[in-house]
Specification:
The chain has about 800 residues and is an alpha/beta fold.
């Protein structure tokens, strides 16, 4: 007898860890509504687009029968078309999509695309993965947690689904021994896999669900069970890190190399964690597995989904980036009441590098917060050179002799090993290194190979060095240099000009014989204490790596009338839990904590804050939560200046420039304000379908094929979507858009004002309005081209309430002549 929870996402017997011969995995959508639109009966029913799975009992006999019916239809179609052993079905999807994934030859895929009832066939693609201080930086301990009963209640009974690389369940960030017991949560219906090694459950009450999805990866022949772990166990580190940022326990000491770097906490430390592993060490992941995980997470009853993953590129088989099984599954998740946060991508600072496109998803950009780890080295000639070094100082701050790795090689013939990066201690003369500061080079192996600062430290320590210096001699455009915690005094010099000064001093102070061999080391240096962070008011800044807009609507990168990213959150140098067997960051292998950067780290900040909002407003829609986050965001840094974005200069050096909504969306998240936004701009599933149908050139049949929803006769414009931003990528003459705001606070009178670049005239009406508690009002916004510049103009609508609420709607437009 099949368990009801397994009917829709059908669990097969363990597949062999080999590919199924030639062919690929394909995703197929079928005619007929998925469970998210289920209204009862089997054939011929039609659901209204407003229906939500939140009010649906998916364990009911009728829903269970319908799920089994859809799965049987998938099997019957494949059995009818192909011989039994010529294909392999991977998953049946029926909660968010009516479809399946299957391993086929290209010829079989062509035949399947022509079969009755088949609406859409797409070849599977890959996806990739895209703290101690940030709760304080965002004001959670003082401004947010106390209002909900303190950190030990923050996120109570809210479930965050993390679709990532799994979890290390034994980490103290997820422990239950120092917390109040977690009671049962009957509305969550997920399951907990058993660790095949320990035979123990991955769950403990804090971790409430743990499953892994690898059938598509296995079918593609990419999965290696020896290193990829066929379980929810995190072999990468990424998933453990994001889970801890979102909902890790509060007050966990971050200890490494005998030093404590503060105490870690998630944004919602009492929230439950549900793990859906889809990412693996060697190859990343596959869309089929991710869609299966999304489908299962919604079926299980998560409240929030964290997606620190994204596609390798925009979908190329549809006419718009918004229409594909991945985004369609997320649209159905939103219809089911689940808030989705997705990483913007790490392709910055270049424009149009986003990997999250759709308006129903909250797309998160990464910020540098106010914490910097700086250090310096003082040379014997009195010069001080700045660098990165999260390390203790050299003993008693006294100076030590400097010795270059090139002068202590045991055998010059070993150059094939690139010994200058100090990764192999057996190649160096310990007698010459002991008690000195070892000077190493920064080879390309650090950028794209296996070299790590951690290994330099291990080399120096094994040779008895007093410390080490790693000096960058050549510029590597796009390289991001992060401080690495090490046990030995050490520093990374990233400025090539500072490196030249260091080497010139060393060479001029080192005595050599006629053959160039050193006879005496007289260059000296001392390394300062770099363990304590320095706090800066010039924060936040948009991180250099954070992907930028404008959003694109199709594979030819035509601009969309959708502002992306949506929101900015801390994503640079984030301390959080790590899997000791994680291999994602060479500098943290074997460690329990890591300080990592990426929009992957920014996204769980938003997921955790969304969990706090879901706790306070359990019946708010995902669009309402997204609106509250966006309309209350900050566009000023801690010093009261407009936000800056890290960029490249003409010489490929990092510089700062004024940030725009294409860098930060609506601005940096303000959790306290988001929990009391005053007004929200809500949107329903039917609004998103109307948005899809209004995209110029879109095929209504394609909308129907992928979403199972029909376009009505009046399409309007994409900018008509009731989103908390306004974007018009092709403004001609005057265009008027409407926005409906709903008062979620007490009755309040708002005064409207606008700001806009002079090339575009921006007007909002009415100029003032009183909105009763729980009521809605419409505002009319007109944009008029004054001059054509060929560039985007940026502005905002400000709505200031007499009770203190401030609601801000960013406006973006590019004017064209008629």
């Amino acid at each position: 007898m099949l368990n009801k929870m397994d009917l829709c996402l059908f669990v097969f017997l363990l597949l062999p860890f080999v590919s199924f011969g030639s062919g690929d995995v394909y995703l197929i959508t079928m005619e007929g509504e998925p469970v998210v639109s289920y209204m009862g009966g089997i054939d011929g029913f039609s659901a209204t687009a407003e229906d939500s799975m939140e009010e649906m009992d998916i364990t009911s006999e009728s829903v269970t029968s319908y799920s089994l019916y859809l799965k049987r239809k998938h099997d019957e179609l494949l059995d009818l078309l192909f011989e039994a052993k010529s294909y392999k079905k991977i998953y049946s999807y029926c909660h968010l999509l009516n479809g399946f994934s299957v391993h086929l030859t290209p010829e079989q895929a062509t035949a399947l695309s022509k079969a009755p009832g088949v609406k859409y066939v797409e070849k599977d693609g890959k996806v990739r993965k895209l703290t101690t201080h940030t709760p304080q930086f965002l004001g959670l301990p003082t401004g947010v947690w106390p209002t909900g009963g303190g950190f030990d209640k923050a996120g109570e009974d809210v479930v965050i689904g993390l679709i990532d690389s799994g979890v290390f369940p034994k980490h103290p960030s997820f422990a239950t021994y120092n917390t109040d017991p977690y009671g049962p949560l009957p509305r969550y219906r997920g399951k907990c896999e058993i660790d095949p090694e320990t035979k123990r459950s991955f769950c403990n009450g804090k971790i409430i669900g743990a499953q892994h999805f690898a059938k598509a990866a296995i079918a593609a022949g990419a999965f290696n069970p020896a290193v990829d772990f066929p379980s929810p166990l995190d072999g990468d580190g990424h998933g453990t890190h994001t889970a801890a940022i979102a909902a890790g326990n509060n007050g966990i000491p971050v200890r490494m190399h005998g030093h404590e770097f503060g105490k870690a906490s998630g944004m919602a430390p009492r929230a439950r964690i549900a793990i859906y592993k889809v990412l693996y060490r060697l190859f990343g992941g596959y869309v089929s597995d991710v869609v299966a995980a999304i489908d299962q997470a919604v079926q299980d009853g998560v409240d929030v989904i964290n997606l620190s993953v994204g596609p390798n590129s925009p979908p190329s088989t549809t006419k718009t980036t918004f229409l594909n099984p991945f985004d369609a599954a997320l649209l159905s998740a939103v219809k089911a009441g689940v808030f989705v946060a997705q990483a913007a991508g790490n392709g910055g600072p270049f424009p149009k590098t986003l990997v999250s496109f759709s308006p129903w998803i909250t797309t998160v950009a990464a910020a540098v917060d106010d914490r910097r780890y700086k250090n310096h080295i003082t040379l014997g000639n009195g010069r001080t050179l700045p660098g990165l070094g999260l390390s203790p100082a050299t003993h008693a701050n006294k100076s030590f002799d400097l010795v270059s790795v090139s002068d202590v090689l045991l055998d010059s013939s070993v150059m094939k090993y690139n010994p200058l990066d100090c990764q192999r201690p057996e190649l160096l003369n310990k007698n010459l290194v002991e008690g000195k500061i070892l000077l190493c080079g920064y080879s390309f192996n650090f950028v794209s190979g296996t070299a790590s600062i951690r290994k330099v430290c291990e080399t120096a320590k094994s040779l008895g060095a007093a410390g080490f210096v790693v000096a960058v001699e050549s510029s590597y455009p796009g390289t991001k240099y992060d401080p690495v915690p090490v046990a030995l005094p050490g520093i990374l010099i990233t400025d090539v000009s500072q490196t030249k000064e260091l080497i010139d001093y060393y060479n001029s102070s080192t005595k050599r014989d006629w053959a160039g061999r050193p006879t005496g080391f007289q260059a000296t240096a001392s390394i300062a204490d770099g363990l304590a962070p320095i706090l800066h008011n010039s924060a936040p800044q948009v991180a250099l790596f954070s992907s930028r807009g404008p959003d694109v609507k199709d594979f030819s990168f035509q601009d969309a009338d959708v502002l992306k990213p949506d929101i900015l959150a801390p994503g640079s140098l984030i301390w959080a839990a790590w899997a000791p067997n994680g291999t994602d960051e060479a500098n943290y292998e074997g460690e329990g904590f890591a300080m990592v950067s990426g929009t992957s780290m920014a996204t769980p900040h938003i997921a955790g804050i969304a969990a706090l909002m879901k706790q306070k407003y359990p019946h708010w829609s995902p669009a309402a939560i997204k609106s509250a986050l966006m309309t209350t965001a900050n566009t000023m840094d801690r010093a009261g200046r407009p936000l800056q974005a890290q960029q490249y200069s003409d010489t490929q050096m990092m510089t700062l420039s004024p940030a725009t909504p294409f860098d930060y969306g609506s601005g940096e998240v303000d959790p306290k304000a988001a929990l009391d936004p005053g007004l929200i701009l809500d949107a329903s599933y039917v609004d998103y379908i109307n948005f899809l149908c209004s995209i110029p050139g879109v095929d209504p049949h394609e909308v129907s094929n992928i979403t199972s929803s029909q376009c009505n006769a009046t399409h309007g414009k994409p900018s008509d979507l009731n989103s908390p931003s306004i974007t018009i990528s092709h403004l001609v003459g005057t265009q008027t858009v409407k926005r409906t705001v709903t008062n979620v606070a007490e009755t309040e009178t708002y005064v409207l004002s606008t700001r806009m670049s002079p090339e575009i005239a921006l007007e909002a009406n009415p100029p003032a309005m009183t909105i009763l508690a729980g009521s809605s009002k419409e505002i009319s916004v007109s944009l008029t081209v004054r001059s054509v510049t060929g560039t985007y103009s940026f502005g905002e609508i400000l709505m200031k309430g007499n009770r203190g609420h401030l609601v801000r709607i960013p406006v973006v437009a590019m004017g064209y002549s008629s």
